[in-house]
Specification:
globular; two-stranded antiparallel ribbon; mainly alpha; 3-stranded antiparallel sheet
Length: 192
């Protein structure tokens, strides 16, 4: 039954919808990371919580995008580790009650109860999925240990380009991009 519903047009719509949603969440989350790196913008407790909230919903939107990409063949390639970690990261955030006690203790003293947590833990023995202000000057803002914001932006650009090449009438649904809070210079990422 779903096969009849998800025509090419609906697949393009869903892919673009979740691309826009993921980019919107990145646009909301990344300024908090940049402010934390500058050490000048997260003095308010509500900003710290806002960073955590936007991080969480970025993972939710990215997971929906992966589902939309899996509806039919696509020319967009996703690094398998990035794909796996986005799926696992969303799962671990969804099941926070079981996973916070496992991943927010170092060294880890317990094993994750589910397959997604076990896979994430095996790949990341010394880090967890709940660091919403992670950053490196070499990779930029980090959603998860192996998922940088710049890498996710590249994926979003590729999906958007493919969808609009298939159906340029959808371009009217794409909002303008927010200005980046980052300077990318000489292979390094620094907050503006």
């Amino acid at each position: 039954m779903n096969g009849d519903y998800f025509s090419d047009g609906m697949i393009n719509r869903q892919r673009l919808l979740w691309t826009v949603a993921t980019r919107r969440q990145l646009d909301r989350w990344e300024p908090y990371v940049a402010a934390a790196v500058r050490d000048d913008g997260l003095s308010e407790s509500r900003d710290i919580w806002s960073a955590e909230i936007e991080h969480h919903f970025t993972l939710v939107a990215a997971r929906h995008l992966i589902q939309a990409l899996e509806l039919a063949p696509t020319s967009v390639s996703i690094d398998s580790t990035v794909r796996d970690e986005l799926i696992e990261g969303r799962d671990l955030h969804e099941r926070w009650l079981d996973n916070l006690p496992v991943f927010n203790r170092m060294p880890r003293v317990a094993s994750p109860p589910r397959r997604s947590g076990k896979a994430f833990a095996a790949r990341n023995p010394k880090s967890g999925p709940y660091s919403w202000l992670r950053w490196s000057n070499k990779t930029g803002a980090q959603l998860l240990p192996h998922v940088s914001a710049p890498a996710l932006h590249e994926l979003l650009d590729a999906v958007e380009a493919e969808v609009l090449a298939n159906d340029d009438s959808l371009e009217r649904f794409v909002p303008p991009r927010a200005p980046s809070p980052w300077l990318h210079q000489d292979g390094e990422w620094w907050p503006k």
